[in-house]
Automatic annotation (TrEMBL):
It comes from the Bacteria. Gene3D superfamilies: CBS-domain (3.10.580.10). It comes from Streptomyces hoynatensis. PROSITE patterns: CBS. This is CBS domain-containing protein. CDD domains: CBS_pair_HRP1_like (cd04622). PANTHER family: CBS DOMAIN-CONTAINING PROTEIN, CBS DOMAIN-CONTAINING PROTEIN CBSX3, MITOCHONDRIAL. Keywords: CBS domain. The keyword Phosphoprotein does not apply. SMART domains: CBS. Signal peptide: none annotated. Residues 8-66, 73-132 form the CBS domain. Transmembrane segments: none annotated.
Length: 138
């Protein structure tokens, strides 16, 4: 069985809720990613920050990214999946919540990777991929 650990891009990193958005953007550039999970002071995920969030909710709204924190934009219930979860569970989680990036957590609740649309495109058959796209972009 193919698991989340098989599909994910390993090496995902947290960004603390207290970190500024300008630093978040720099970290995204360094890691060549478009999203970072946001961790609270107890290193528990409290949201995901995307490059689009920084642009739309901060810069375009006239705010200074050096004064706004990742925690200011972390909203909603964070979604994640176990590294042992199968493809159907991954697709249900991402499709059911219409999300494009999914953090992967190991049995010790540590962040071990991230699953993106690109990861799924490499691993899924055409029918599964079409179903995923229809659910996420519906």
């Amino acid at each position: 069985m193919t698991t989340a650990a098989d599909i994910m891009t390993p090496g995902a990193q947290w960004i603390p809720v207290t970190e500024t958005l300008d630093r978040a953007a720099q970290l995204m550039r360094e890691l060549n990613v478009g999203a970072l999970p946001v961790s609270d002071t107890n290193e528990r995920m409290c949201g995901i920050l995307t490059d689009r969030d920084i642009v739309v909710k901060c810069i375009a709204a006239g705010h200074d990214p050096s004064q706004v924190t990742a925690g200011d934009l972390a909203q909603g219930t964070p979604r994640w999946i176990s590294s042992e979860s199968g493809v159907d569970e991954i697709l249900d989680e991402m499709g059911g919540h219409q999300i494009r990036r999914l953090p992967v957590i190991d049995e010790n609740k540590r962040l071990v990777g991230m699953i993106s649309e690109a990861d799924l495109a490499r691993e899924l058959g055409d029918d599964q991929l079409a179903d995923f796209v229809a659910r996420v972009y519906a």
